[in-house]
């Protein structure tokens, strides 16, 4: 779906209107040949994800005026989509430089629907992040977020900062999973019962061995209980920045090193069970 430029927030996707939507909105294979580069979706920050992912999650799982939380904001993709679609949004980012970038880009995106979007420089696993969630919800007279989006670093593939809380510093899969789950468990209590979680994650190679980060996080989340898996989506990444115009080189390296080129990442979708109890806020 294209960004709504009318003066009515984009409605939640509904089954009775199925003819209006891109068929992929209901499928678990997302082929997105070109990222959205309109408006403030500039795409020069290496760690961001294609805006279409945030767009699809927000449209499927929130209504106009809904509230979205992003625990790994990056350059502001989720908040830009919140402004376009008429949803409120809070985003946490650890790096001060990227936090400033996210604030500028999301702030420069037109706010046609007068929603509240906010960027906080904070460790998403901290008490400060929890306090920010409470304050943000109170400002909106809301009790809970409707959607939680988590797009962590893919372990140590790219180093984003020297901060000790940065998951991109963690090469050990168990340490990475523990760090991610600390964020997950800190933010999940602020999601409403029946609310949705979108986790965007890819795998990595380490000394010629596949480290299945997607499966590791999937198992960790399900082991915590209180949610059900609603989608295991495979998203095509053939046109990402790391491999752009380098197809022949990567093919040579793969054949020489006996490995296979990653052409995908995952969007894991969970729903918080209504009977789940994760402690008081």
Notes on the structure:
This protein is globular. The protein has one domain (46-235, 265-272): Rossmann fold (3-Layer(aba) Sandwich), CATH 3.40.50.150. It contains seven helices and ten strands. Residues 1-5 have low confidence and may be disordered. The strands form two sheets. An eight-stranded mixed sheet has the order 1-9-10-6-5-2-3-4, sandwiched between helices. Strands 7-8 form a two-stranded antiparallel sheet. The longest helix is centred in the middle third of the chain and has 15 residues, at 173-187. The two termini are 35 Å apart. It has helices spanning 51-61, 77-85, 96-108, 127-139, 173-187, 213-224, 247-257; strands at 29-30, 67-70, 88-93, 117-121, 145-150, 191-201, 204-206, 209-211, 227-236, 264-272. The protein is α/β, with parallel strands linked by helices and 281 residues long.
Instruction: Note the beta-strand portion.
Output: 15-25%
Name the shape in a single word: globular
- Overall tally of domains: 1
Q: Give the averaged pLDDT, no decimals.
A: 91
> How many separate helices?
7
Name the poorly predicted regions.
Answer: 1-5
Radius of gyration: 18 Å
Strand-pairing-aware structural class: alpha/beta
Provide the succession of SSEs: EHEHEHEHEHEEEHEHE
CATH architecture: 3-Layer(aba) Sandwich
CATH class: Alpha Beta
Q: Please give the number of β-strands.
A: 10
Largest sheet: number of strands, sense, barrel closure: 8 strands, mixed
CATH fold title: Rossmann fold
- The name of the CATH superfamily reads Vaccinia Virus protein VP39
Distance between the termini: 35 Å
- Helix content range: 25-40%
- The spatial strand order of the largest sheet comes to 1-9-10-6-5-2-3-4
